[in-house]
Amino acid sequence: MTYPITFSTMQGHFDALSFYASCHISYQHALRKQPVIVLSNNDGNVVAQNDKAKKLGITRGTPYFRIKEQVRQQGIHVFSSTYPLYGDMSRRIFAIIGRFIERVEVYSIDEGFFDLTGYEAIYPDLRQLAQRIRETTLRSSRIPINIGIAPTKTLCKVATWFAKKHPEHRGICVLDTPAKIKEALLEFAVGDLWGIGDRYEQLLLQHGIQTAAQLRDAPDDWIRQFMTVTGLRLVYELRGHQG
């Protein structure tokens, strides 16, 4: 099944990589090849870890006392949460992106959306634009970001997921054709979709809907009945229509 997709309005999404850990690394650049973790208030649990720490099996939410010996043995660098630093770095990143795009929407401290409507003449090559934004952000803040570009915010989040999970994308994924979108949704697990919580994931899996492509192709009446208007809006975005 195919759906008409309008590309007159394109959206972008960016997500800082291991943001809390990256903020500390940005001020101690020698740590960029070292495992780094950040602890919660009162140093109770792990709240962030860079890729090097993840490869050592450190997971978010782990109580610090359980991994103290591992930290010592494997030379893992530990930082306490420093929220003024994170806020300052977040504002810096949004300001950098604001140099390129006027309409930037804050979604959280480490991610946001930007509206590319009307920029076709200025930025005809979307991947090149994303590359410039990514390189400028890294050079100016030393914070790596992933960027996804697509016709809707939901598809942007899908694109950013691919930019992060698949090294061949090099931090950037542009879904600007129906064929690219179709291929991405066929691979994308329905439970990883933005706005799909555990309850809806279980419901969809029980009905044999495992991928974002299968959800996109589900009948509107069924979606409205079991997932309400909010779910239907998500499905429309998967079909390329901004809600």
Q: What does this protein look like?
A:
With 243 residues, the chain is an alpha/beta fold. Among the domains are: 19-83, MutS, DNA mismatch repair protein, domain I (3-Layer(aba) Sandwich); 188-238, 5' to 3' exonuclease, C-terminal subdomain (DNA polymerase, domain 1), CATH 1.10.150. The protein has helices at residues 19-27, 51-55, 64-74, 83-98, 126-141, 153-165, 178-187, 198-206, 212-216, 220-238, and strands spanning 11-16, 36-39, 46-49, 77-80, 104-108, 111-115, 145-150, 172-174. The strands form two sheets. The protein has a five-stranded mixed sheet. A three-stranded mixed sheet has the order 3-2-4. Helix 4 packs antiparallel against helix 5 (126-141). 36% of the residues are buried. The model has no long low-confidence stretch (mean pLDDT 93).
Return Rg in Å: 19 Å
User: What's the total count of β strands?
Assistant: 8
Main β-sheet description: 5 strands, mixed
Coarse morphology: globular
What is the CA–CA distance across the termini?
Answer: 21 Å
* Strand coverage percent: 15-25%
**Unreliable segments (pLDDT under 50, ≥5 consecutive)?**
none
Put simply, the count of helices is 10
Could you state the order of secondary-structure elements as H and E?
Answer: EHEEHHEHEEHEHEHHHH
CATH topology of the domain at 19-83: MutS, DNA mismatch repair protein, domain I
Helical residue percent?
40-55%
Strand arrangement in the largest pleated sheet: 5-6-1-7-8
State the CATH class of the domain at 19-83: Alpha Beta
CATH architecture of the domain at 19-83: 3-Layer(aba) Sandwich
Structural class: alpha/beta
